[in-house]
Amino acid sequence: MKSLRPHASRALAALLLAAAGTAQAAWPERPIKLIVPFPPGQATDIFARALAEKLGRQLGQSVIVENRAGAGGNIGMEVAAKAPADGYTLVMAGSAMAINQTLYKKLNYDPRQDFAPVSGVFSVPLVFLATPQSGFTSLHDLIAKAKAAPGKYSYASAGIGGTQHLSGELFKSMAGLYITHIPYRGSGPAQADFLGNQVPLMVDSVTAALPHIQSGRAMALAVTSAQRSAQLPNVPTVAESGVPGVKGFEAVGWLGLMAPHGTSPEIVGRLQQEVNDILRGDTMARFIRERGSEPAPTTGPEFDAFIASEIRKWGKVVKLSGAKPE
């Protein structure tokens, strides 16, 4: 076969570039899949579905949530990492991804290299809780009593290696405390024993704990965010406890949108703009805040830098605690 003549080659190249530009401009031409690496009904799933509905309206195509749970979120993240980078597969990543980088000896994906960060979605503070029967009246009171009786007290969490557990371990290390961690298989079982006064302390998300705080069945000692929670304005932060060792303490759960690495910057930029607009709108912001969280719109580079800082922070805590995946 004879080679194309120079002018014919240039003409063909121009046609291909034009076609590529047209295809790019037409995105999205079909439904988009949003992978949620946790089961239906959990906070990640609830927020993902709310965002998917609004994002679909903005883009003019359905955004279909697909739950791919298992291995602490790793199964869904791996599926997303290996998906085509064509803008038709997205994933809701969260705190677990940053923790799993150190918690697991080997991951079949790289949290930094295999994804293109789009935007943060929300952050949720955790809250240190005490039962009314425990006798604890403040975080300062807890620290004083725990130091006076090392090993006497225990706290519950939703499981080993989660933000609840590791926030408790970070607090213990900064405050110089020895409090026993009791892991459960999920927040529900942990709450049941805590509310039944089987364990005096618990670390939980504000979202999950709010009804029990409002009913008086749980006492909120402090929230783990840098600022007070809008849902619990009278509850101080850990850093406000007055104990020198915990100045600067901050630990939050978070959720953000990512695409497979290699997704075009134009698509990532469009997604970031649409997601930011949604999160800054009154409807979605109210939906998030009513559930004890805060909208967290960011640029892609801002979200990427945040993820890097989270991997560093939780990596140190995982190693310090000796946590191993269940």
Which keywords apply here?
326 residues; 44% helix; globular; 10 strands; disordered N terminus; single chain; alpha/beta; 19% strand
Structural class based on helices, strands and sheet pairing: alpha/beta
Mean pLDDT: 91
How does the major sheet shape up? 10 strands, mixed
Radius of gyration computed on alpha carbons: 23 Å
Describe the structure.
The chain is an alpha/beta fold and 326 residues long. The chain has helices spanning 6-26, 43-59, 74-81, 95-103, 139-148, 163-175, 187-195, 206-215, 265-280, 282-289, 300-321, and strands at residues 32-36, 63-67, 89-94, 115-130, 154-157, 180-183, 201-205, 219-223, 252-260, 294-295. Strands 1, 2, 3, 4, 5, 6, 7, 8, 9 and 10 form a 10-stranded mixed beta sheet that branches. β5, α6 (163-175) and β6 (180-183) form a beta-alpha-beta unit. α4 crosses α11 and α6 (163-175) packs across α11. The chain starts with 5 loop residues before the first helix and ends in a 5-residue tail after the last helix.
Concise structural overview:
This protein has 326 residues and is an alpha/beta fold. The chain has helices spanning 6-26, 43-59, 74-81, 95-103, 139-148, 163-175, 187-195, 206-215, 265-280, 282-289, 300-321; strands spanning 32-36, 63-67, 89-94, 115-130, 154-157, 180-183, 201-205, 219-223, 252-260, 294-295. The chain contains 11 helices and 10 strands.
SSE diagram, text form:
Layout: H1 6-26, E1 32-36, H2 43-59, E2 63-67, H3 74-81, E3 89-94, H4 95-103, E4 115-130, H5 139-148, E5 154-157, H6 163-175, E6 180-183, H7 187-195, E7 201-205, H8 206-215, E8 219-223, E9 252-260, H9 265-280, H10 282-289, E10 294-295, H11 300-321
Parallel strand pairs: 1-2, 1-3, 5-6, 5-7
Antiparallel strand pairs: 3-9, 4-7, 4-8, 4-9, 4-10
